[in-house]
Structure formats: structure tokens, C-alpha cells
Amino acid sequence: MVSGSGVFSSKAEGKMAAAESDRNASSALCTEFVNFSARDTASRWLAANNLQQEVYHHLAEYVPRILCLGLSGGSREEQREELACQLLLFAPLEWLLLGEDPSTGLVPLQKKNLSSPLCGHVFKVGEPTYSCRECAADPTCVLCMQCFLSSMHKDHRYRMTTSGGGGFCDCGDAEAWKMGPYCQNHTPVGSSKATEEDPVAQLHPDMVARGYSIFSIILKYAVDMLTWDQENQLPAGLEPLEKADSYYCMLFNDEVHTYEQVIYTLQKAVNCSQKEAVAFATTVDRDGRKCVRYGDFQFCDQAKSVIVRNTSRQSKPLRVHVMHSSVVAHQCFALKALSWLGQIIQYSDGLRRILCQVCLQRIPGREDSSLIDCLMLNDSKMWKGARNTYHQLLMNSLLMDLKYKKIFAIQFAKNYRRLQTDYMEDDHDRLVSVTSLSVQLFTVPTMARMLMVEENLMTTIIRTFVDHLRHRDPQGRFQFDRYTAQQAFKFGRVQSLIGDLKYVLISPPPEWSDQLRNKFLEGFDAFLDLLKCMQGMDPVMRQVGQHIEMEPEWEAAFTLQMKLTHIIYMIQEWCSTDELVLIQAYKKCLSALSHCLGGLPDGDQPISLSLAGHSVDTFRYQVSQEKVSIHLPVCRLLAGLHVLLSRTEVASRVPEQLPLSELCPHLLIELPLRCLVLCAQVHAGMWRRNGFSLINQIYYYHNVKCRVEMFDKDIVMLQAGASMMDPNHFLMIVLSRFELFHIFSSTDIRKRYREANKDLVQQNTLIEEMLHLIIMIVGERYVVGVGQVEPLDEVRREIIHQLSIRPMAHSELVKALPENGNKETGLERVIDSVASFKKPGVTGRGLYELRPEWNKHFNLYYHHYSRADQSKAEEAQRKLRRQNGEDTALPPPLPPPLCPLFASLVNLLQCDVLLAVQGAVLQWAVEPSGGSWTESMLQRVLHLVGMALLEEQHQLENSSTDDDVTFNYASRITRQHTHTHTRPGEAPSTSGSVLALLESLQNTPHLEAHKDMITWILKMVGSIKTIRERTSSTSSITISLGQGLGETVRDKDKAERKRKAEMARLRREKIMAQMSEMQKHFISENKELFQQSMEELEASSSAAEYSSHSSELTCTSQVCVGPWRMGRSERRQLVVCILCQEEQDVRGHGRAMVLAAFIQRSTVLSKNRSRNLPVPEHYNPLFMHPDLSLGIHTASCGHIMHATCWQRYFEAVQLKEQRRQQRLRVHTSYDVENGEFLCPLCECLSNTVIPLLPHASPPDHSVEHPSLEAWLKTTNQQIAVLHSAHRKQSDGASGWVEPVAPKGFKVTFTPQSPFSNSISEMINTFSMSAYKVGLKVDPNEQDPRVPVLSWSTCAYTIQSIENLLMDEKKPLFGSLPCRQDDCLSSLTRFSAACWTSAPLTTVHAHFIRLLSVLVPDSQVEDAPCILSVDMFHLLVYGVLSYSSLHCLEQSGRSSVDSGHLHLLQLITVAHLVQILLTSTTEDQSMDEDTEVSEEQELTCQLYRSLSQHLGSVLPEVSSGWQLWSCVKAAIMPFLRTAALFFHYLNSAVPPADLMVEGPGQWEALCSYLSLPSNLLLLHQDHHTLLEPLIHRWCCHPGVRQNLQGGGVIVRFPRESNRLINLPEDYSVLINQASSFTCPRSGGDKSRAPTLCLVCGSMLCSQSYCCQMEVEGEDVGACTAHTFTCGAGIGLFLRVRESQVLFVAGKTKGCFYPPPYLDDYGETDQGLKRGNPLHLCLERYRKIERLWRQHGIAEVIGHAQEANQTLVAIDWQHL
Ligand SMILES: [Zn+2]
Ligand SMILES: [Zn+2]
Ligand SMILES: [Zn+2]
Ligand SMILES: [Zn+2]
Ligand SMILES: [Zn+2]
Ligand SMILES: [Zn+2]
Ligand SMILES: [Zn+2]
User: Fold this and answer.
1) What is the C-alpha to C-alpha distance for residues 476 and 498, in angstroms, rounded to an integer?
2) pLDDT higher than threshold 80 for residue 1039
3) Predicted confidence band of residue 1062 (pLDDT cuts 50, 70, 90)
4) Which residues surround ligand 2, an ion (CB under 5 A)?
5) Taking 70 as the threshold, does the pLDDT of residue 1773 lie above it?
6) Which of 219, 392, 470, 798 has the smallest CB count inside 10 Å?
């Protein structure tokens, strides 16, 4: 034991000693500061013969003494280090370089500097970047915000994204932009010749020489140190003079361990606090390493072993080294030196060039290596900070110099394979790997081509990629299914190579050299090798009997396919630009395919098929019984190239160079056909036992992300094959692969539905699928090269078909279109030609709607429709046609003509086999279905017939001679089949001709749905016949005639329908007109009756409720307060319980009824957000400060329940919740433990209930009404009695003079509770809720503050509602929704009653204190000054607590109403004074021509008297007019809130004038409140009483202090709070956020900058660095902020996500659509699309209204109810 403690103490001593010596060292350094001369040092170096030795010596001496002297990371320490480095280390280097004082020497250099034409601004994480969609050469070309704003592109279609960090602005790079490469700031000024000159020649030769040597030495030093791997030793020449025993324990970053693990481990290992551990972990994550302990070797080594031990359990341990302090110091200095180099070259392009040369100089003795090579090749071994620093230097030097950028690119390409291999082994982000520089080098097209030619880059990339995917099956194909996690990780990283390949291929060359051709074709070979490894991978085999045991891995293969899709597309693009390349590539691809197909024809004997008089040989193969693969990239590439042959017309111009004759069409079609059959069989349900993986693969095969290079190309391949074959042969093979041949070849087709075939449904689906495939093969001609179309036609057609389903938003359309390499869909260029745009409202998004003239292009069998799309589109189109009064046939649209290479495809439509198939299906359809055929089948056949007829009509109309017409479908379907019976497999003759069948089907009742289509077909046949007859007789004129005839037949038909529709419409309109006429008549006759019923209708809204009263009472003035108030005529208040549906009377002694309600703290009205929230224990809420910094708001959905019913409901909810939590461990959207529940009717979030109480009884008009003076006197006496009674109680002894009690005032009287037990209980419930929520404390019924909080929520809620009404310019009464009206009404009546459940003495004490603000009371200490009291709150509390005093008055001679009125008057005067004291001083020189009114005069008088009391503190005000108008505006909110309060308190009917907006409000308001409309008369009339009071108010020391600048002065009227102003352009916000740094971790970029919409603070959200402790729990910056800024409620804008965030408390939150929209009326949550976003004010106002209405918590509640995943988010970490 002893030895143990001894070891420990020695360690501690060691540490102490080290610290001690450092302190000595640093003080010694200080003296050297003074004596050190950089100039002398520099000249000494200059004289030396070995400069490097001298400099190293200097560094060896100083570096360890300046840098890394301990663990502290304080900013002062850093500054000191910085300064010392500059003075002692860099200054001499600068002297040496410049030969003079750096401060003067740099100026001339800078003058001569030709700044790089490149902007080169390096992007920070999260900074906005802009790309022009019209001019950028590729999407990687971006501009910084400054360049963008001064470029031409800001008026183009641009795209905005946030940078992931790294990368730089491409402004000034002529190759990056098709147009406008320079912004205004970077437009080159000098002649272009200047840039050609060698900038080094501009420098003095001596300086050049010195520059070379200094840069070489420093760079070499930095490279040595950064690549140094010894922990305890330094390179030669740098060894310190004396080596102390001081070490660091250095912790390195990895991507395996989590933050939590590292923090936990550090706390254990180095014994630090959690906070320090978080700081360490953050730095490790940011810089890649951090010293976590400093001391002697043992001390550090101990920490190391703890860390290693603690982190090695599940994974490879954290990397920790114990390093000697001098090594660490030199490494730190090396980083600083690199930064220094980066800075010094900014002064001069000459110096920059010199550094470039030094960087790339061959190292003597290592011929093929330079210093930069050393760095690159050690990249993966360096820590993050080191990598970032030297990458930054690369960007500032080599990448800024166009000449050296090329040389560097070559070195980079030479090292490419090695760098990528290192990167695979490294676990850091790609962003911090040197390999990520490829984007800077390869995306420059000339550079990319140069590297392709000189370094064979394309081949290198592809071969490297293939080498890294080592798992192969015996056939050499990729095999991903047995990947370990490690291999999967590597697979993820290796994909970045595809990205590099994409960069290289981004733009096809404008011209080809022979070398480029050779190298490209070499690369193409490599690419084919890659595709060969994919051809046939992941084969599947139909599972029969048993379900597969394990879902096979399929995603990796599809990921690869998806990644390669763009590459394949680009390779084809390259091929299309050069004939020679295309031909060679085609040949290579063909031979690769033959190689893949090598095994195919072998095996079994071919089988021979015959049908309809034709026969063909084919393989014996069945998809349902043998292996089949979806991956056929070689086939598909060949299909793509085949189309190119057609598109570029190479096939027709130089057919002799093509190996077309070598093509065996049977082989070409085989694999794609198998794949399509597989899809059909999966649809038919034949592969159910193969599980989901197959379904997913089929899904992706058709999905927009893959289909271009999968499904689409398979169709093309079938088209190519079919156009080279006899159509009958082709169809027979298709039938055979679909395993349907036997059906159509059997001698008796009818047999099919006689035999009970159990697979009939499957077979039907297969027939449907096969017919669909034939439709696609013949009809899909919108690929350039297949059909004669333009590229945009294809896009347009896609859009038309998407919009045929339903109107769509821009982003939905974008998603439906395949992106090309430039992420462009081509959508914008055609959308406006086919669709009209409908703008969005306050919710929803803008939609595009197809214009009607494009409907005729609709094709029901559009190949990109899924089955669901198809049926939706069909329904929509039929509906549309019915609405237009047209027939519902959906005939095929006329397709574009085929290109010559594919021309013979049309023959499929009229070949014998197809006719036989059509005949068979029609034959079946004659009889009502017994499951033996389907309507879909028939529909497809009709479609095929229609296509054939269209083709024939088209040929007839467009040919000049009869010979051009090869089509005679119409006559073929007319003829009976005349084949003899002898041939085997022939269609039986018993069936009639197709035409005859159609005619007989036309009127079949069971085919009603297809009637219109059949009619259309028959008409077509008729019109074709007519054309043929005319053409055969005469010339081409008849054609147009014939066409005209055809048209007229159709037109006539259409016209007839239209006419009928029009007639119907007219008839309808007439009837309507008649009816409305009758109605008018009726109304005028029964006017009164009608009005009555209208009123009844409106009676449900609160407005109407009063209107009937007001009509009676308008003449007599209505008053809501005081002895003359009008009570509500006593009406029974009947309500219905929403839970038991029973009616109930609201009575004081009845069963309690309650309203569901939600109480929350609020800062919505706060005028002082910097005020700290009160500490609950010591906070006295009796006086609300006028800044209203924290209030309690109550809202209700207005739903009423029995208290007992509610209690039962709540208990049930509680129970359910407990069970649910035990079972699922999930939370709900509401927190039951905090009393939360959802309203059982409307699911509104609630946390308490308000009891319903009866209305106040009308006042007793018989009692006298004392004057203010008399009342005040009586009240003072009563208070004195209470004081003395209280003293007696507490002291017992009475040395005081007993005050005389007014008559009838009984101190000892105990009033009876006017309420039943159940109501009292509910009063208590709500009181406790207000108390608990308002103060954030546990319930405590004994606390005297309980009633105050009930009053408080009443006052605050009224204030906030008044504020909203005012801003929305709504009348004070009658415009509130019922739920708010009910809420305020019951809340006010409750507050008036709540004192009954508190001890009387408590309420007395409150009243006495409240009154003491106005009427000084010697017994009350430190009453607040009137400037720190909100008068409305004072009024409410005063009036509500006065009842407790008045109830002791038993004489019956006074009414409580007198007291209310006097309190109102007194407080109104106090508020007047408050307003005058704080009125603003701005002196408006308004004309005072108008007469001085009485009000103005009196206002001035009062102001003057205030000035007397206060002296010069008040400013001079000359204009009475101005003063009075200020006062009038300022007191308005008080009067309005008071009117609302007394209205609800006394259930007084409001005057009609206050139920509308308009003039006369002031007078109506004053009269309603029983106040003179000249308020100053209140002061004037009681001058003698008030003057001394006013004097006392002004003399309160607080007043003077307040006015002289002691805190925030609240002025009246208080301005309403709004959410902060947001910029119109969203990128402004992004830019703001990108320059925002985390306030905690010195200058670091924040990852999730989040803007508080309430106060405008920017926060560092969702990050460890800014977590704070709130109520004993660590929470994120947003949650912490809500506690101060919004009292628990927060509204934020997450800038980088473009998302609004609502937070309530710690556990609740939701996302809300942001108020920013793009030009298409859509939000971009997540900023994925990058369209420019602009502020939509209406939406922002909507959010603001939500906030001001205190609706945020409710929105969150609803969102969480609707979406349970929101509940699981840890909102408190945001
Ligand atoms: Zn720029
Ligand atoms: Zn620029
Ligand atoms: Zn542009
Ligand atoms: Zn009930
Ligand atoms: Zn409700
Ligand atoms: Zn805020
Ligand atoms: Zn932070």
C-alpha cells in the first residue's frame, strides 16, 4: 500500500515540476523578446554557408520553448504563442526573404502582384454556393456568394446549395462556364499577355534565390515534421539542447467510437470533469487529435493504458500516443509554418510561383518524388488538422497557378492508385482526404483529357475500382451477398472512384485526337471488363414449395447499378461525338456480349415452334425453372450504342464498317426478354416464395433512378432484335418465353376455358403482360434514334403522362424524370408549353395542370406507368372526357415515325401470329367471362388493333404512290382466315375474322365499357376503306378528301355530343334561374320571417347573442362596471356534457361543470427579453411589471364536461398510459404525469379544467353610492382595523390605539362558501394548475401566492387577446370565436371566485398591499413605484381581491360595485400619470391652429404639476394637442382590456358601437366603463384628494431612478411583439448562418445554426459544444434558449435545413413548413433541390399568428398525434 501511494505522489511531483519549469521558461523567454533582433538574426543567417543548418538550429532552440507548454488551451496562452512565433521565428524569415523590414518590404511586392484570375475562395461548411443551370459546364462548378451576386448568373436559372466544406469558388475559370466566367470583381483587367509572362521574372533575382532556399527549407521542415512518426525523437538538427521529462498523452480521432464513449473514457482516464471531457472530445473530433494529459512519461503512459483498456472491448481501441513535448511543439510549429507560407504568397504571384516550383521539385536521390508527393502519400497517416492545413496550402498555391495546377494534376494522377488504396484503409471522411482534391482537378475538361491521354486516367480509375471489389463468384462476377461490415464499409468508400470517373467524363471532347481515341477506347475496354463482372450477377431461381429461408442481399448490386447509370450515359455521349470511336466501341461491346453469351446456345437441343403457318427454332429455356438475372449491363450498353448508330446515321452511311451481319437477333433478344418475362411472372404472382428482395429489385428495375439503363434499354434491345427478324418468329419466341405458346397454338383455343385450370388467373396476367410488352415494343418511339423525335419530345411526353394522372408540383415532376450527369431533367424547357401553373395558397404548394389540347397525346399503355399509375390515369382521363361531353374511348395516340434502322418494327402489328392472338382473345370475349379472359386483355388487343389502323391511315395519308403503302391491316382483318387445316399449330378457322368479331362485340352488353373504343375502331376501318377506294381510283387529292372525310365523321360525332351537352346545360341554367327568381320573390314577401330565421342562424356566434339585446338597449347607455351597470337578464345557463350528453344547469350549488383548458407560461407580450426568469421560491407575483416579461396564458377548446365525467376520463387515460409505457416504452404526445390530456372531443392538448360558474347577479340599485373620497376613507378605516386585528393575532399584546371600525364591518365574520363541494374542488384544481405552471413549483395549497396566479392568468389572457384584436383591427366585442369567448367568460368568473378557496387573511393582505401602491399606507413597507406596476394587472387583482374585504361589510349599505368603480377611476388616473411620465419626448412641430380643447388644457395642467414634482427629469412639452393625442393612444389598450374584464366579470351586454370598428369607439368605451370621455376630469374633479397622492407617487425614489435611465423604460401604448424580420432572399440567411461560429468552441463553425424567430438569436443547435444544463439535465442550445426567451415555448428556423422548428418544454417539438417558397410555390425542407427561395409573407404571418395566439403547443400536440415518429425524437438535444 505504501509503495502504491509513493508512486502516486512521485507522479504528482513530476507533474508539478514540469509545470514549474515551464513557468520559468516562459519568463526567461520574455526577457529574450526584448533583446531579440530579427534583422540581426536574418543577416547572420545570410552570412552562413549552410542556411538550413542555421535555421534548424534556431528552430531547435526556440520552438520547444514557445509552443506547447502545457495543457491549457486558454485564448491568452494562444495569443502569447502566436506573438512569440511571429517575433522570434517568422520575423527573421521574413527579413531574410525580403532583405528589409517586412512591414515596408511587402508593399512593393503587393503592388506588382497580379492576383490570380481565379477567385479561389475556399468554402466553409454550410456556406452557400451557387451554380448556374444554364451556364455551368457541370454541376460541380460553383460560385461564392460575393462572386455570384456580381455575376451575370444571378439573373439566370440558378441553383443554391450549402457547401459541405472544402472546394472553392470557380469564378474566373473560363472552362467552368459556358458563359460569363468572370464576375465583376474578377474580370481580368490587364492584357492577356500579362498572364503568359513568368511572374518570377518580375522579382529581383536575389529575392528569387532567397525565396527558393527559404521556401525549400521551411517546406522540407514542415513535411518532415508532419510525416514524422517517432514519438520521442526529432529529425537530425532539431534535437533539443536539453531534453526534459515532459510528455503529452495525445488522443487521436477515429470514426468508430462515439462521442459518449470518448467522453466517458476521458473522464476515467485523465480524471477530468465532464465539461473538460466534452471539450477534449470536441477538439479531437475537429482537429483530429488533442493532448489530454501533460506530465512525465509515466504519468502520461498511465492515462494511455486506461484509454486503450477502456475502448478496446468491442472495437479497435482509440489511438493514443505518448509523445515528447518537443515533438509536439515542432509539429505545431510545422502547421503554423505552412499557414505562414500560404499567407506570404498571397502578396506576390512571383513568390507563389516559386513556392509551386519548390513543392514540385524532385527530391535529390528520389527521382520520381517531390515534397508534395511526400505529403500526399502520407495523407492517410496524418491527423485531420495537419491534412486540412496542407490542403489549404495546396489550394492557395498550386491550384491557383494555372501552369502548376497541370503539373500537380499529373503527379496526382500518377499517385492515384496508391492514394485511393490508402484512402480505403483510412477511416476518415473523404472531405479530409487528399483524394477529394480530384474534384478540383478532374472537372477541368482540358485537364481531364490531358490526364486521360498522358496518364491513362480513365483506365486507371476503372481498374483501381475493379481491383477493390474482390469478392467474385466462380464465373468472375461480383458477389456482394457475403459482405462483412468491414467490406460493406469499403464498398461505400470505393464508390467515390465512380465519382471521379464521372468528373473525368463530364463533358465530351469538342474534338478528338488519335491519342485520345486510343486512350478512351482503352478505358472503354476496362469499363466493359467492369460490366462483364456485373452481367448476370445476383441470379435468381424461382422458389417452389418452400419460401426462401433468407432474403438475399440485393442492394449493393443496385447501388452499383445506380452509381454507374450516369457513367454509362456519359460514355455513350462520348461515343456519339465521334464516328470512329462509336464503331470501335460497338464492336468491342458486341464481342464482350458474345463472350458473355458464350454458354447460351449450348446445352439442350433447340426446340422448334410453329404457329399460323410459320415456324422457328429456339432455345429450350423456361424463366420459371432456370436461373435468371436482372443485371445485364453489357446487353444494355450495346442497345444504347445500337440506338446511337441509328441516331448518328452511322448505320446508314457506313454500314460496311459495322458488324451488323454478325448479330444474331435471337441472341440479342434472349436475355432482355427473360428479364421482362421475369417481371411479368412476378406480377402474376408466380414468384411469391422468393420474398421481398425480388420485389424490390423489380421495383428498382422500373424506377426512375435505374430504368434508363435497365428497363428502357431492354425494350430498345427487343425493338432492335425484332426489327432484324421475321415478326412472326419474334412473336413466337416471345410467346414461348412467356410460357404461353401452347395456349395460342393449341388446335382448339376454346379448350382454355373449358378445362378447370387452377393457374388461370396467373395465365391471364401473363397474357396481359405479354400484350402490353408488344404494345411497348411497337409503340415506344420517343427515344432519339428509335423514332424520329427530338430529345425534348421525350421529356415532354413524360410530363404529359405524369400530368395525365393528376396536377403535380414541380418537385414531383422533377422526381419522375431521370436526371442526366448535370442533374438537369430538361423539365423547365418544356413544362410551360404543356401545362399551366396554379399558385399555392397559404398552405399547400403550386401545381401544374395539363392544358386540354395535350390530352390527345395520352397513351394508356405508356411504358413508364406502373399498374397503379395506369389505372389512376385511365380514370382521370375518362372522367375528363365525360365532362367535356366526349366519348370515353382512349385510342392510342399517333406515334412518331420510326428511324430507318427500326422501320420494320411496324410489321409486328399486322403479322399472322399477332392476328391469331388477337383473333383468339376476341373470340373468348364473345362469351361473358367465366374467368377465362379479362377485360384488360381485351382492352390491350383493342389498343393493338387501333395502333395498326393508325399506322395504316398514316401511311395512306403520307405516301405519294401506292407502292409506299406496305400496310394493309384493314383488309387483312376483314378477310376470313383462309388457311387450310393441314398445317400444325395453326389458328383454327372456326373463329371469324377479327373485324367480324369486333362487329359482333360492339353491342354485347357485358362489354359496355369498351363500346366506345370498338366504335372508334370500326369507324377507323371505314375511313381507311374510303381512302383506299379513292386512292385506287384517282390521285392524291382524294387522300386529303379521305382524310377530310375521316375527320368529318369524327367531328360530326363530336359536334353532336357537344350539342347535346350544351342543350342540357342550357336547360339546367333555365331551371336554376327560375328557382332563384322564385326564391327572391318569396323572400321579399316574407321579409320579416326571413330576417328572423337569419338571426337564428347567427345566434350561435357570440356576436349575434348580444345583437338582440343591443337593439333594445341602445338608447340607454350601457355600463359594465359600478352601481349603474346592467346585469344580464337572469337566464338559465344550460350546457351539455360532451362525455355523457346530459344537460346541466350551471349553478353555484349544482354539479360542477368544467371546460378543458391549457395553461402555459408566456413571453409573447414581453417587452424585455433580457430579464431573467424569476426564481420560483422567492418570487412575489403580486405586482406585474409593465414590461410583461412573463405571463400565464390560458386557452380552451370550449368543450364542456361534468367534473366527474372528466375525472373518470382522466383516470382512464392515466391508467392506459401507464400500461402503454410499460409495454412499449414510448411516450405520447401528451405528458400524463404533468396532468396533460387530450380533449375527448377535439383532441386539443389540455392540462387542466376551468370550472363553469354562474353569472354575477345584477346590482342592488337601492344602496347608496359613496363618493371616491368617502369610499377611500371607509376603506382606509377597514384596512386599519384589519391591520390591528392582524397585529393582535401575531403579537397578542396591544400597545396600539384601537382603530374605530366602520359601522357594520365585522372582522371576525366568516362568509359562507357560495359553492357546492364539487365546484370548490374544481376551483382548487384550476388554482393549483395556474400556481404550478405559473411558478414552476410543486402544488402547495398553503402558499399565499395561489390566488394571485389565478388572477394573473385572467389578466394576462385578456391582455393578449385584446392585443390580437387590436392588431387585426377587429372590433372589441363580437369578433372572438366562441371557444375564446367561452374561455374568457369562465376564466374571469372563476378568478372572481377563487378567493373563496384561500384563507381570508391572505387575500386581505394582498388587497392591502395592492392598494398601497396608490394610497400610501404607513404599515406597508416598500410598495413599488407606479412605473414598475402594470395598471391593468393592478386593476384586476384589486377588483378581485376587494371582494374579500367587502364581504366583511355586513351593514348592507354599500355595494361591491361602488368599490370596483372607484378602483377603476383611481387606477385610471394612476395610469394617466404613468403615461405622462414615460411619454416620448420627440418634438413634432405640428401646427397648433386648432383651438385648444378642454382635454388638452387639462392634460397640460396635469403634466405641469408632474413637472413640478419631478423638476428637470421630465422633458419640456409645449403642445397640449400632442400630449393629449399621445395619452389617448396610450391609454386605449388599458381601457379596452378593462372593458373586456368587466364585461366578462359582470356579464354586461356590450354597446353596439363596440361591436363594429369605426368612429365613436373612444366615447363608447368611456361610457361603457362609466368614465367621463374627458378622462382628465377624473383628476380635475377630485383634485384635492388626488394631488397629494400624485405627489407621493412622483416622490417615490423609484420614479426618478427609472426615468434617469435605471433599466428599461416601458412606454405606452406598448408596441405589439412580432416575429423578427426575415430577409426576402433565403441565401442571405444561409450566408449569415455560415459566418456564425459556435460561441463555446472558439471560432468553430456551427453544424446546425438555428435562428430564434422570436428574438433573432443565432444558436449552435444539435451539438455537444453548446449543451447547457437546465433543471439538472443537459439540453441542446435551442431547448436551453426556449427556457429564457420563450418560457418553454420556442420557434426557430433551422437555417441549413430550411425548416421551422417548434419546441415546447424538453420533450415536445415538431417541424413546420418554412415560410420560404421557390418559384414553383414549394418549400424545400432539407434544402435538397436548391431552387432559389423567397420569403412568403402570408405564410410567415400565419406562423406569427400561431405564436401570438399561444397556439404553438397545440400545433405540436396535433403534429405528434398525427405522426408518432415525432414523439420519439429527442427534442431536448436540439
Ligand atoms: Zn468567388
Ligand atoms: Zn468572382
Ligand atoms: Zn448563367
Ligand atoms: Zn357528463
Ligand atoms: Zn375540445
Ligand atoms: Zn429567442
Ligand atoms: Zn456550439
Assistant:
1) 20
2) no
3) low
4) 119, 147, 171, 183, 185-186
5) yes
6) 470
State how far the Cα of 1671 lies from the Cα of 1661, in Å rounded to an integer. 19
Determine contact, residues 1315/1393, Cβ cutoff 8 Å. yes
How many Å lie between the centroid of ligand 7 and the Cα of residue 1660?
5
Report d(CA 801, CA 790) in Å as an integer.
17
Query: In angstroms, what is the span from residue 1549 Cα to ligand 4's centroid?
Result: 30
Ligand nearest to the CA of 117: 2
Ligand nearest to the CA of 142: 1
Ligand lying nearest the CA atom of residue 183: 2
Out of 158-162, 700-704, 1688-1692, 1734-1738, least confident range: 158-162
The percentage of the chain sitting over the pLDDT mark of 90, rounded to a whole number, equals 37
Band (1067; pLDDT cuts 50, 70, 90)? low
Question: Please, are residues 1194 and 1383 in contact by the beta-carbon 8 Å criterion?
Answer: yes
Q: At what angle do helices 205-226 and 325-344 cross, to 10 degrees?
A: 140
Distance 1432 CA to ligand 6 centre (A): 26
Q: How far apart are CA 1020 and CA 1230, in angstroms?
A: 66
pLDDT band, residue 715 (cuts 50/70/90) = very high
Nearest to 716 by CA among 789, 665, 647, 786: 786
**1245 C-alpha vs ligand 5 centroid, how far in Å?**
8
Per residue in 142-162, pLDDT (tens digit) is: 999 889 989 999 888 888 888
Q: Is 868's pLDDT higher than 80?
A: yes
DSSP letters, 945-962, are HHHHHHHHHHHHHH-SSG
CB 1500 within 8 A of CB 1520: yes
**What does the block give as the cell for 1654?**
422570436
d(CA 1769, CA 1752): 18
Contacts of 1397 (CB under 8 A, 6+ apart): 1320, 1323, 1324, 1327
DSSP per-residue codes, 1513-1581: GSPP---HHHHHHHHHHHHHHHHHHHHHHHHHHHTPPPPGGGGS-STTHHHHHHHHTT--SSTHHHHHH
Give residue-wise pLDDT tens across range 1074-1093: 555 555 554 454 444 444 44
Backbone φ, ψ for residue 1062 (5° rounding) = -60, -45
The residue among 631 and 599 whose pLDDT is bigger is 631
CA–centroid distance, residue 136 to ligand 1 (Å): 14
> What contacts 129, CB < 8 A, 6 or more positions away?
123, 142, 143, 144, 160, 161, 162, 163, 167, 169
Residue 131 Cα to ligand 3 middle (Å): 8
The rounded Å distance from CA 447 to ligand 2 centre is 21
Q: Minimal CA–CA distance to 1733: which of 140, 144, 160?
A: 160
Using the predicted structure, report yes or no on whether residue 1113 has a pLDDT greater than 50: no
Cα(119) to ligand 1 centroid in Å equals 5
Return the SS3 of 1119. coil
* pTM assigned to the model: 0.79
3-class secondary structure, 1166: coil
Q: What is the pLDDT, as a whole number, of residue 337?
A: 94
Written as nine digits, the cell of 784 is 432519339
For cell 460561441, the residue is: 1639
1322, 1201 Cβ separation under 8 angstroms: no
Q: Does residue 437 have a pLDDT over 60?
A: yes
Confidence of residue 6 (pLDDT cuts 50, 70, 90): very low
Strand partners, 1158: 1195
CA 308 / ligand 7 centre spacing (Å): 28
**Helix %, strand %, coil % for the chain, to 5?**
60, 10, 35
Q: Give distance in angstroms: CA of 1635 to centre of ligand 2.
A: 19
Residue 1431 pLDDT: 95
More confident residue, 1651 or 1149: 1651
CA of 959 to the centre of ligand 5 (A): 75
